[in-house]
Structure formats: C-alpha cells, structure tokens
Amino acid sequence: MAAPTPRLLTLLSLLQTRRDWPGSTLAERLEVSHRTVRRDIERLREMGYRIQATMGPDGGYRLEAGTELPPLLFDDEQVVALAVALQSATASGAGIEEPSLRALTTIRQVMPSRLRHRLDALTFTTVPSRPGDEAQDPVSPDVLIALSAAVRAREVLRFDYRSPAPHADDDLLPPRRVEPQHLVTAQGRWYLVAWDLDRGEWRLFRADRITPRTPTGPRFTPREVPGGDVAAYVSARFKGSALIDRWPCSGEVVLSLPARDVLPFAGDGIVEDLGPTRCSLEIGSWSWVALAASLNRFDTDIEVVRPPELAQAFGVLAARNAATAGGGHHPVSADAKADPGSVA
Question: Could you give the CA distance from residue 40 to residue 111 in angstroms, rounded to a whole number?
Fold first, then answer.
C-alpha cells in the first residue's frame, strides 16, 4: 500500500475499531514496514488525533477517546457504508428518519468532492424488513454504485447475469439490456427494478448476480412501476402478485397454542390471543397448498376459520403426503394452485 493518503485513512480506520494495536500487526495489515507505521502515526498526531504509544513486548498504539474531533476522514468503503446506513434508517421505524437525513447532509458538506460524488451516486429505496430478515449475498459497493448511477443517469444498462445454478454455457449468453428504474434493498438482499428491453416486461434482478458492462447505452424516458410505488411493487412481487401488496391466498385459522408461542414465527401474519392455550392467525402465501403446508410447521391442532379453499388445500396436502409416505405420486389439484410470479 504505497499511496500515503489512502494508507492514512486505512490506519485511522483500524485505530478506531479497537483500543490497542500492536505495531507489528498494523505493519502487516498495511503491508508496510514498522518505520513507515511510525511515520504515519506522527502524521495523524500532527492532524490532531491523540494517539498514545503502548508498552509491551510488541509495542503498539492506542487512539484516545474523549478528545476534540479532528476533521473527519473517510475512505471509499466507509462512504458507501454511511450512505447505506443513513438512507436505510428512513425505513427503520425508529423515529430517526429526519435526523438521519440531516446527518447525511451534514457529512456530505464536509467531504472532498470525489467522495461527495461517490456518496451522491448511491441512492436506493428500502423496503421495510420482516422479522427474521438478515443480510445475505453481499454485493460489491462498486456494483451498487454502478447500478445507482445508471438509474440516476437514465441510461440503458447492459450486464451479465449469473444464474442461481451456473451452467457451462452461461458465458455464451448475451448480456441483458434493461432500462434501470430503481435500486432497492429488501429482505436482506439488493435488487434492481428494471424494464427488460428484450422481454418487454418488468423484472427484478438480484444485484449480487449482476456484472455491469461498460459503456452504458442511450438515455431513456423513465417508466412508472405498476401501482406507482416501488416499495409496494417489490413487496407485491415477493408475494406472487403483480400489482397489489398482499398474498394471493390468505386465510384465518385457530391454533391450539398460546399466542406467545406463535408470534415469533408468524412473519407478517396477524396473531390474536384467544386464551392460555389458543390463538387465531391470519396469514397468507402464494398458493392454498403452500399456506396449508406453512401452517403445519406449528405442529398442533388447526381449525380453519376461512375460506373453504384453505380447508380443501389441507385435504390435497394430506393426500399428497400419504402418497409420498407410500412411495406413490399424487397430482396437485389445479384449483389449489396460484401463480407465485417470478423474481429474476
């Protein structure tokens, strides 16, 4: 790491993550000599950072807490982390939406132009998380910024798209051509909402499978997502609906379990306490059979309140399971299915 400024930023970032750093560890992380680490420490001290030398077999350094804050320094990855954290806070439900936007504006004003442009390049929509949603399938910050930049510039985007199960002929597939409309984070993943020019339809593309190509194509006129609300549209697609943010199949049952045992596993369902050993649950899924199967996870007696299609789905599921247990095959009734839609 030969460039002094990026190395100083990395050194400062390391010092801020823990109290004590052995000098040998810092030299190894920065890929420089111990002498260079000492010189860099002196530069940070000259800039106002109070860094103490620590005693011990290895010797090391400690960044003091409680001192006046010198000018803020951020590297490229920290800028992306700030943009994601502060923009995502608007959907946290913690009442910090307005302070988060003010913090983002304040930090932006003190950044050099190069980092400010990088911060401005990343804009996205956050779909509120459901219980149990966790971050998964990380995406390169450069990919996120490239996708967001194409959305902001309204330029046709070409990219290679990795299939869920890679095939030998994937490299022979032509690149996708889309009009990128929105970058969205939902259910622990990043998605690009785009109009597919070759298929003539709206698609959701997982950002972790995208490898953008350059240059981008011609400018286009933005389209409005079905329904006009990108967050509602993405939520609806996850539920197998093209327009309305609700499950195609929804029903109500009574479970022979206390509400406290059902709540942690109800997802977006509605639980009502009916006494010490019973509760009702309103919940949905993309098909009646899928809904019946999901309710069996509670491993208890189930009383169907509504609708009749859900009770019939339990019959289909019972027949299928009996056939499976006996080694046979039972076809699924057509009226027990619903089209779950697709996410690319």
Answer: 21
pLDDT of residue 331 exceeding 60: no
Considering only CA atoms, which of 162, 158, 118 is closest in space to residue 139?
162
> CA-CA-CA-CA torsion for 255, 257, 258, 264, nearest 10 degrees?
-90
pLDDT in tens, 15-70: 876 667 888 888 888 889 988 988 988 888 887 777 888 776 667 888 776 544 45
CA dist 8 and 15 (Å) reads 11
Two tokens, residue 137: 């399938």
Q: Got the DSSP string for 276-343?
A: TT-EEEEEEESSHHHHHHHHGGG-S-EEEEE-HHHHHHHHHHHHHHHHHHTT---PPPGGG-------
For the full predicted model, state whether its pTM sits above 0.70: no
Measured at the CA of 31, the angle between CA 29 and CA 32, to 5 degrees, comes to: 120
Residues 185 and 88: beta-carbon distance below 8 Å = yes
Positions of E strands within 85-226: 125-126, 157-161, 176-186, 189-196, 201-206, 210-212
- Tokens for 54? 């620590």
Structure tokens at 80: 């992306």
Report yes or no: 176 and 205 within 8 Å, Cβ to Cβ.
Answer: yes
Place of tokens 């869920």: 164
- Return the number of other C-beta atoms located less than 10 Å from residue 255's C-beta: 23
